[in-house]
Design brief:
The protein is mainly α and 193 residues long. The protein has helices at residues 5-13, 18-39, 42-58, 69-91, 97-107, 118-137, 140-151, 156-163, 167-187. The protein has two domains: 1-93, RNA polymerase sigma factor, region 2, helix turn helix motif (Rna Polymerase Sigma Factor, Chain: A, Orthogonal Bundle), CATH 1.10.1740.10; 96-193, Arc Repressor Mutant, subunit A (Orthogonal Bundle). It starts with a helix and ends in a 6-residue tail after the last helix.
């Protein structure tokens, strides 16, 4: 079975830096998907992932025994995502959404659920593009909650811990975020995601 994430961090605290490699193997893909859904730019998401793992290594002494590793990791990554978004705004960088969406569409694998049907694949791609555009239109704090809940599958309690806010605030952000995404999708002519 192997060591738990928590055991690996505790081993890192004792000087076993090889444990980081195991954590990277386990969490690299889920962490990238999470950061990409927040930042909506591949290069920024890759940078944040690398920085997250570096911080885990350099700050492993701050990990509290008994805490969930994933919660700690998501807190680090989310703070780095927020920093990245602030830097973008500060420097006035615009999201080049067409370029990013074109790259995503070109890199999209054939989806087995569409049975190789080109029309269904195009329809699914259009829905994905509309969803990404809708996510760009909602406030970052709502997008964070939606990504953590819907894509990462976390419970409201876990999201509240990651964000450092009451569970009721998380639920409120979820409600308003879903409403805003639904409205944006309807404006684009998509009735169900």
């Amino acid at each position: 079975m192997g060591a738990s994430d928590e055991d690996l961090v505790l081993a890192m605290q004792s000087g076993d830096t090889d444990s980081l490699g195991t954590l990277v193997l386990r969490w690299e893909q889920p962490l990238f998907r999470f950061t990409y859904r927040i930042l909506l730019r591949r290069e920024d998401a890759r940078d944040v992932c690398q920085e997250t793992f570096l911080r885990i290594l350099n700050k492993c002494h701050r990990y509290k025994r008994g805490s969930r590793f994933s919660t700690w990791m998501y807190q680090i990554a989310l703070n780095l995502c927020r920093d990245q978004l602030r830097r973008r705004r500060r420097w006035g960088l615009l999201l080049s959404q067409n370029r990013e969406l074109d790259e995503g569409a070109a890199a999209a694998p054939v989806d087995a659920t569409t049975g190789g049907d080109p029309a269904r694949q195009i329809e699914k791609q259009e829905r994905t593009v509309a969803l990404v555009n809708a996510l760009k239109q909602i406030p970052p704090e709502q997008r964070e909650v939606l990504v953590l809940k819907e894509y990462e599958g976390l419970k409201f309690r876990e999201i509240a811990e990651i964000l450092g806010c009451p569970e009721s605030t998380v639920k409120s952000r979820m409600y308003y975020g879903l409403s805003a995404v639904r409205a944006a999708l309807m404006r684009d002519g998509i009735t169900s995601p």
